[in-house]
Amino acid sequence: MTDMKAMKARKIAVVVGGPSTEAEVSRRTGKAVTDALQKKGYQAEIVELVPAELAATLQDKRFDIVFNALHGQYGEDGVLQGMCEMMNIPYTGPGVMASAVGMNKIISKSAFRGAGISTAPFAYYFIEQGLDEIAADMSREFPLPVVIKSAAQGSSIGTVIVRDEKDIKPALKEAFTYGKSVVAEMFLSGREFTVAVMDDLAFPVIEIISKTGKYDYRSKYTPGLTEHICPAAISAALTREMQDLSVAVFRLLHCRGIARVDLMTNGEGRPFVLEINTMPGMTETSLVPDASRAMGMPFEDLCERILAEASTGKF
User: Fold this and answer.
1) Which residue in the list 20, 99, 150, 155 is annotated as catalytic?
2) The one catalytic residue among 99, 108, 219, 286
């Protein structure tokens, strides 16, 4: 068991920012985490990610632990994790494999399907196929509306719900600005939920209700635009089913620390896994802190628990 008294004598780098499209969200997460750890008496310091300089910064400033508060590129895709493994610096969250698989929607959804985990029907495409061929195939395979997503973005960046066939190609162009692959996913007309998982413990289910009618980047990070109902007003059976699905995803990817699994129901109320967030947001509008408080765990205690599992040698 980690000696948290001894941990307070160690320097903790809360790594944030970088070149990711989610850098600003990361900085907000990092500030919240740093404030929480400092209140607990830890020597936590924010470190802005400069990719070519991070290894030297960690060594020169003699940091002992990395608290990963990055979202997206470098922090959520296995790159930071691999660097910490090579430098033998304990870090929070999942390892290289779990991060890389969780970040890529094509690979993660294929893993869900292969493991028999209920996920929304999908197909994936690469930019080399050409927009005309992709749009034609998508029209054959999916009824409208259809959801088009960049394969390796979070916070709903690069995600478009297409309701008219003429909008498929513009949506593909937008999604491809964020990478060379996209996912087309069957539109689910039910309700939106999320479940945080830590150490195989499922937190209370949260229902997400957007006041704008869509849960996009603006709705996620603008206070007051989204309502989080926790615990969700659903049956005990559906609650257990969603929690079991989320734990199954967490285990499948060999996650560590805390992750968040996003789900939606179809018109008949059946739940489907959309994706896993291996580095969920911890801002004032984020979902995980809401779930933590609902189960009686203050935000400061949550951050301390995440810190306690910092280590190397992860999958």
Assistant:
1) 155
2) 286
pLDDT at 315: 78
DSSP assignment of 35-103 equals: HHHHHTT-EEEEEE--TTTHHHHHHHTT--EEEE---STTTSSSHHHHHHHHHT--BSS--HHHHHHHH
CB 80 within 8 Å of CB 74 = yes
Pairing of strands 181-186, 146-150: antiparallel
Q: Does the annotation mark 286 as catalytic?
A: yes
Class of domain 122-186: alpha beta
Q: Is the pLDDT of residue 122 over 70?
A: yes
Task: Reply yes or no on whether 22 is catalytic.
Answer: yes
Find out whether 188 and 275 touch, Cβ atoms under 8 Å.
no
* Global pTM exceeds 0.85: yes
Does 4-93+303-309 carry CATH code 3.40.50.20? yes
User: What is the distance in angstroms between the CA of the first residue and the CA of the last residue of the chain?
Assistant: 20
Q: Is 108 a catalytic residue?
A: no
Query: Domain ranges in the chain?
Result: 4-93+303-309, 122-186
pLDDT tens digits, 191-239: 999 999 998 899 999 999 876 555 444 544 455 667 889 999 999 999 9
